UniProtKB/TrEMBL annotation:
TPR repeat extents: 162-195, 202-235
Keyword Transmembrane helix part of the UniProt annotation: yes
Upper lineage: Bacteria, Pseudomonadati, Bacteroidota, Cytophagia, Cytophagales
CDD domains on file: HisKA (cd00082)
Protein name in UniProt: histidine kinase
Length: 695
């Protein structure tokens, strides 16, 4: 999982630091206390103190910036007002009130533009880019970041260059372009080391640790987290130390070092609760919940999972909400509370579906940016060629003053070459457009696979155990061999080393079997496609998922009752399909059918004659097989039928549906199996879906 909070904390620091070297917060407080006069110096120092406090006390930072703006307005001091508005935008952004933050930042940009202050405009652009990143507008954020980098180089401003380089490193890490992220991280680290800004260096080291953890290189991630922690300890900055310790605790959980993870997580939690770092707090609760799961301590896992669930939903941190639901599902299963386990497993799947769209949007941002870069490079090359030809034509024209005949030949050849260049430009643009359309279509198809990409991380955990224990075993063997070479051998130490080695080998075998079991489970029970078609008994598949959906609904609501009707054509036989994908389509349609009859039953409780019914029928006709799924539920009007297969369209209340189920089902049937999927419905009477597959 890409852990967002450490990256975003660093983005705040790198994009909002003042462009002038600032005095300490204590010295600024002392100056303000002894200089009560409302002049321009007071405005500047209040704004500077707001900037110094923005990481530790957002409320005081907002109040200082607001007061500075009012004084600047009274003094008719436009530069001071612009800086105060910028500080207000930074403070509100830190409190995740992005709408208010954007309002103040745009006012600040207008002031800076009126003053012709390009440096101030660049600062505002950087902060707006950070807000776009938090909102998931990655295309806009990346475009803004590259513009800021260009401005920083044009203005030759070292601090703006450091800020922009670090911001782009964070953004590329969020987008999953780790090669670019590492390049910008290295550049930002060099720039900050030149000026000795150790707090920013600590955050950069923490960010590099996140990069390696996202790539699965836990050894390098641990090394960089420890560097960040040591530097934060030397600086006496508990907040920086807690951020890195929270990330290191997650690595310890992945490596199975449960006690170390609990110690680090609790230590980080105490600091961040006092500081109000709620994104870090919600993530740390999840880490502690996973650690207690490893110890089979279900009650403690539920306690931390609940706290993470409630806090992450409150602040809108969907990645942590998804992980918290996974912790709660596993913890309730340990307590044999399968009703709650099933509920949180469904919520986890729903958040996974939602976040898969965000991952696709991240990849699309890189795709669009790379395509735009390729187009600009092609246009620049063609423009350079056109300029060269124009210069050549001018030289020929000068020579033609004396040699009219030669001029005619040169002009004719230049005209022909220009035509060829224009034709080449049209061909390249057409090729670029075709390539972009093809890549976008591939992204849409890839979204199905992304829905289950997360299960691969489950395999990483036992493999990490195997690698770590193997590495430790090699060290034990080396130590044993060294001991055996000594004149006076310590037999007790040798016995201890052999015992440790035997235990390590047992753990390697245990976790190897665990990884093998996960692979077998994926092959047998994964809800996602392997891409391999195989002969499948559609009648048995439909019957299995009909019962599964019904009993799943009954597990949540014992009052639900419905008549199940099946009519299977024996001639259907076995059909070559991707059984996991078709099973997912059937399960989605059955869940919708039971939901519809349940809603009609609730809405018409006085109608004793109503019989809730869900029926499935199969029929083979020539070279096609049809599956009819019919319910006597609420039905749908014509306007809803027209949109039913659109992504993210749903008729369910907020929180009960993602709007992706029928869209994905439609793509699986029509694009994945070259079949068709239609719907017939009458409002208030029921609905019938028909899936047609080629034999």
């Amino acid at each position: 999982m890409i852990i967002r909070f450490a990256q975003l904390v660093l983005l705040v620091v790198l994009t909002t630091a003042s462009l002038q070297a600032q005095p300490s917060a204590d010295s600024l407080r002392a100056w303000l206390a002894t200089h009560p006069k409302a002049d321009t110096n007071r405005v500047n120092n209040m704004t500077a103190l707001s900037d110094a406090l923005r990481s530790d006390d957002y409320i005081q930072a907002m109040q200082l910036a607001h007061d500075a703006q009012l004084i600047a307005q009274k003094l008719h001091y436009p530069l001071g007002e612009a800086n105060a508005l910028f500080a207000l935008g930074v403070a509100y952004g830190g409190r995740t009130d992005y709408a208010t933050a954007e309002q103040y930042l745009r006012q600040a940009r207008q002031k800076f533009e009126q003053l012709g202050n390009r440096l101030g405009v660049a600062r505002v652009m950087g902060q707006l880019g950070w807000i776009d990143t938090n909102r998931g507008n990655y295309v806009a954020a990346l475009s803004t970041g590259l513009q800021c980098l260009k401005l920083a180089r044009q203005l030759n401003d070292p601090l703006l260059l450091r800020q922009t380089t670090g911001r782009l490193a964070m953004l590329y890490n969020l987008l999953g372009d780790y090669e670019q992220a590492l390049r910008y991280y290295t550049a930002a680290l060099d720039l900050h080391q030149q000026t000795g800004q150790e707090s920013s260096i600590s955050r950069l080291l923490n960010g590099i640790g996140e990069l390696y953890r996202n790539q699965g290189d836990l050894k390098k991630a641990t090394r960089y987290y420890n560097k960040a922690i040591r530097l934060a300890q030397r600086l006496g900055n508990e907040g920086l130390q807690a951020e890195a310790e929270s990330n290191l605790a997650a690595v310890e959980v992945q490596q199975g070092h449960t006690e170390q993870a609990l110690q680090l997580g609790r230590q980080a939690l105490r600091v961040m609760l006092a500081r109000g770092g709620y994104e870090v707090v919600s993530w740390t609760y999840t880490v502690l919940g996973r650690a207690h799961l490893q110890l089979s301590e279900a009650d403690s896992a539920i306690y931390y999972g609940r706290r993470s669930w409630n806090l992450s939903r409150h602040i809108g941190y969907k990645e942590v909400t998804r992980d918290a639901s996974d912790v709660l599902a596993k913890a309730y299963a340990l307590k044999n509370n399968y009703r709650e386990a099933y509920r949180f497993r469904e919520l986890n799947a729903a958040y996974n579906d939602t976040l898969s769209g965000r991952q696709t949007q991240q990849q699309l941002a890189l795709l669009q940016q790379n395509t735009l870069t390729a187009e600009r490079q092609a246009q620049a090359a063609l423009q350079a060629e056109a300029d060269r030809r124009q210069r050549q034509w001018l030289v020929s024209a000068l020579i033609g003053l004396a040699l009219v005949g030669i001029v005619a030949i040169v002009l004719w050849r230049s005209y022909r070459r220009q035509q060829q260049a224009n034709e080449q430009l049209r061909q390249q643009q057409a090729e670029l457009q075709a390539a972009q359309n093809q890549l976008v279509q591939s992204e849409k198809m890839a979204s199905l696979g992304e829905l289950t990409a997360g299960i691969a991380h489950e395999i990483q955990n036992p493999l990490n155990f195997v690698n770590n224990f193997a590495e430790v075993s090699v060290e034990l063997v080396d130590e044993l061999m060294e001991e055996q070479q000594k004149p006076e051998r310590d037999t007790e130490l040798e016995t201890e080393l052999l015992t440790d080695l035997a235990q390590n080998l047992q753990k390697i075998g245990h976790h190897g079997q665990r990884a093998s079991g996960i692979v077998r489970s994926m092959l047998q029970h994964s809800r996602t496609s392997t891409g391999q078609r195989e002969p499948t008994d559609l009648n048995a598949l439909a019957d299995e998922y009909l019962r599964l959906a019904y009993h799943g609904l009954r597990a949540k609501d014992k009052t639900v009752n419905a008549e199940l009707i099946t009519d299977f054509d024996p001639a259907v036989g076995k059909i070559n399909v991707v059984s996991q994908d078709i099973g997912r389509v059937l399960l989605n349609l059955f869940n919708n059918a039971f939901y519809a009859v349940q809603q009609r039953q609730k809405n018409g409780q006085q109608d004793q004659s109503y019989r809730p019914t869900v029926a499935v029928r199969t029929k083979r006709t020539g070279s096609t097989v049809a599956i009819h799924i019919t319910d006597t539920g609420t039905g749908m009007p014509d306007l809803v039928k027209q949109k039913i297969f659109q992504p993210f369209f749903t008729t369910k209340p907020t929180g009960e549906g993602t709007g992706l189920g029928l869209s994905l089902a439609y793509d699986i049937v029509t694009k994945g199996h070259t079949g068709s999927m239609t719907v017939e419905s009458r409002d208030g009477e029921g609905t019938s879906f028909v899936i047609t597959l080629p034999v």
